[in-house]
Design brief:
The chain has three domains: 167 residues, Rossmann fold (3-Layer(aba) Sandwich); 247 residues, N-(1-d-carboxylethyl)-l-norvaline Dehydrogenase, domain 2 (Orthogonal Bundle); 34 residues, 6-Phosphogluconate Dehydrogenase, domain 3 (Single alpha-helices involved in coiled-coils or other helix-helix interfaces, Up-down Bundle), CATH 1.20.5.320. With 463 residues, it is α/β, with parallel strands linked by helices. The strands form three sheets. Strands 3-2-1-4-5-6-7-10 form an eight-stranded mixed sheet, sandwiched between helices. The protein has a two-stranded antiparallel ribbon with strand order 8-9. A two-stranded antiparallel ribbon has the order 11-12. Helix content is 52%, strand content 10%. α12 packs antiparallel against α18.
């Protein structure tokens, strides 16, 4: 029987694209899908065979057996992994390339590790096109497993200036954690772009063609990125009747869960990520159409017209968006740093961020500078680094834009959060001293003082 380099389990959109990517790089691939339709539909050039029995799939592989799962995250990963174990040998590798929750990946590493199986969690970004031509991959889990399969993964990954956008970032669920936060950053930047378009359209009176031209120009600025590129494409797409297609899209957003996980993790780790938070929550709120439609008729506003002009103030809008994008990265990286410290993952932040330079949704010109800013002996929030000292020059523009949008009654939640984060960061003494006083007054929760050590309780009310 022929011996294949690896198996790819799951021939949906992403699985099929990855399989074709492996084949295009000269690997021989054994393929499997429980769906007969998927098995029949797959066609590609290269050395492959499609199996309909798991035992035969594993038997067709070279040793160590390497099985790449591209299936629905959650319980299916456990069910499939357990079904494969009887056919695997100690030292064999299972790779989970889905959007799995990082703690599930950590648990699988432990559980399967006791059976001698190396479990690898690979966070993959880039969508169908990236999977086919070169994705970004953030890999965690078994180090031994990575050493056995890493050369294959790196061969199919995206590259940027000779930097491979695939590497091992840490043990347990570290790879899927970095991918999860990557998605949170993606949510934030997408919402910031949406807020910017809302100001252009409903505040400045611009049409889609004018907006497209502006974003086209911004591609030559620090904003240059994949998301800006596709914004140009979306704004320029026409429907069958020649009108902008984007204007006919229902304003209810979908999501697959990684954004919500990012918020949950921020709470667990005690990290402030307001822009990511607003981006996630506005997607949830977009589904409450009954409330929005009713409120649009009943709730009045004292807002006037926006005092920003497309003739004079587009540079302000560009700088406001740029500050928001920088802060989105800063918030996400702060969360990764904190989790790495708390879990003992020892994630190399500059190296992890460099994996986003190509192949993934949040790739941008800024990432090279971000990696440089993180290459210091002591970690600092991006806003405090020398490389991003220019954020102070962007603050005025963002404050003006946010203020005018607020005065005009425009809903731009992500953009407003940018100023909230900036001002919260620069507030040496926050308002939380009052929170602590009130907590102690009603619940005797105690407080600390700025002039002496220890915990204190005061009888605030006379009885």
């Amino acid at each position: 029987m022929k011996q294949y380099d690896l198996a790819l389990y799951g021939l949906g959109v992403m699985g099929s694209s990855l399989a074709k990517n492996f084949l295009s790089k000269g690997f021989s691939v054994a393929l499997f899908s429980k769906s007969e339709e998927e098995r029949k539909r797959f066609k590609a050039k290269g050395d492959y065979e499609i199996f309909d029995k798991e035992e035969e799939l594993i038997a067709s592989l070279k040793s160590p057996h390497i099985v790449f799962l591209m299936i629905t995250a959650g319980k299916p990963v456990d069910l499939v992994s357990d079904s494969l174990v009887p056919f695997l040998d100690a030292g064999d590798v299972i790779i989970d390339g889905g959007n799995s929750f990082y703690q599930d990946t950590a648990d699988r590493c432990t559980r399967l590790g006791k059976k001698g199986i190396c479990f690898v969690g690979a966070g993959i970004s880039g969508g169908e096109k990236g999977a086919l031509t070169g994705p970004s991959m953030m890999v965690g889990g078994s180090r031994e497993g990575w050493e056995k399969c890493g050369h294959m993964l790196r061969e199919i990954a995206a590259c940027k200036d000779d930097v491979c956008c695939c590497d091992y970032v840490g043990r347990e669920g570290a790879g899927h954690y970095v991918k999860m936060v990557h998605n949170g950053i993606e949510y934030a930047i997408i919402q910031l772009i949406a807020d910017t378009c809302h100001i252009m359209k409903d505040g400045m009176g611009m049409n889609c063609e004018e907006m497209k031209d502006v974003f086209e120009g911004w591609k030559e600025s620090r904003l240059n990125s994949y998301l800006i590129d596709i914004t140009v494409d979306v704004l320029g797409k026409k429907d069958e009747d020649g009108t902008p297609l984007v204007e006919k899209i229902l304003d209810v957003a979908g999501q697959k869960g990684t954004g919500s996980w990012t918020l949950q993790e921020a709470i667990r780790q005690g990290v402030y990520i307001p822009t990511i938070c607003e981006a996630v929550f506005i997607r949830y709120f977009s589904g409450n159409q009954i409330l929005r439609q009713a409120a649009s008729r009943k709730l009045t506003s004292s807002a006037g017209s926006i005092a920003l002009s497309k003739e004079t103030d587009l540079d302000l809008l560009r700088d406001a968006l740029l500050l928001g994008v920088i802060e989105s990265y800063a918030q996400g990286i702060e969360l990764i740093h904190t989790a790495s410290e708390n879990f003992g993952w020892e994630i190399n932040l500059p190296a992890a961020v460099s994996l986003w330079q190509e192949g993934c949704i949040i790739r941008s010109r800024l990432l090279r500078t971000i990696s440089q800013a993180l290459c210091k002996d002591t970690y600092q929030n991006l806003l405090l680094t020398e490389e991003f000292a220019y954020v102070k020059e962007l603050e005025s523009a963002c404050r003006k834009v946010a203020g005018k949008a607020l005065e005009a009654g425009l809903s731009v939640p992500a953009l407003l959060s940018v100023m909230t984060y900036y001002d919260s960061c620069r507030t040496a003494r926050s308002s939380v001293y009052m929170v602590q006083a009130l907590r102690d007054c009603f619940g005797a929760h105690t407080y600390q003082r700025i002039d002496r050590e220890g915990s204190f309780h005061t009888e605030w009310q006379e009885h």
